[in-house]
Amino acid sequence: MTDMTDLTEQDRAILNAIQDDLPLSHAPFAGMAAGLGMSEADLLSRIRWLKDQGIITRFGPFFDASAMGGAFCLCAIAVPEEDFDAVMIQVNARPEVAHNYQRTHRLNMWFVLATETPEGIDAAADAIEGETGLKVRRFPKLQEFFIGFRVAA
């Protein structure tokens, strides 16, 4: 697996560029590739390589679920350490789970549910409780703050 010290200047330029808005067009990567001095095929290949190497874990759009009638909810579970991997596999198998993190806390598994309807949050959390036998704590969003998070490569 590659780490950040193995990246070329072009890799870093790509990482910085893909964090910005992509144009809504038939070929959104063509303009980005031209700006980076490479072909669209080379750019797409390099993004795939960055993902395969674990440098980026996900590349794709971020949708505002609530603007489309859906919902997000931060959730947490207190998982016995000896069961953590098995529960993580069960939780991550659900299509509603956007991402999942292990924490050093009594509530040691934190994940985000993203559903097509607000009612889907309870249905997904209830299903996880039924599958794992563990209580899913739900922390619904009260207010959203856009912070423009960006990491310079």
Radius of gyration: 19 Å
CATH architectural category of the largest domain:
2-Layer Sandwich
Q: Which series of helices and strands comes N to C? A: HHHEHEEHE
Q: What's the CATH class label of the largest domain?
A: Alpha Beta
Counted beta strands: 4
Number of helices: 5
Distance between the termini: 17 Å
* CATH topology title of the largest domain: Alpha-Beta Plaits
The SS-based structural class is alpha+beta
Biggest sheet strand line-up:
2-3-1-4
Anisotropy-based shape: globular
The low-pLDDT segments are none
Number of domains: 2
Mean pLDDT score = 88
Main pleated sheet: 4 strands, antiparallel
Beta-strand content estimate? 15-25%
Share of helical residues: 25-40%
What does the secondary structure layout of this molecule look like, with pairings?
Elements lengths: L8 H9 L10 H8 L4 H13 L18 E7 L6 H9 L4 E6 L6 E7 L2 H15 L4 E4 L13
Antiparallel strand pairs: 1-3, 1-4, 2-3
Helix pairs in contact: 2-3
Keywords:
153 residues; alpha+beta; Alpha-Beta Plaits; four-stranded antiparallel beta sheet
Please tell me about this protein's structure.
With 153 residues, the protein is of the alpha+beta class. It has two domains: 4-52; 65-140, Alpha-Beta Plaits. Helices cover 35% and strands 16% of the residues. The chain is built from five helices and four strands. A four-stranded antiparallel sheet has the order 2-3-1-4. The longest helix has 15 residues, at 118-132. The mean pLDDT is 88.
Short description:
This protein is of the alpha+beta class and 153 residues long. It has five helices and four strands; from the N terminus they run H-H-H-E-H-E-E-H-E.
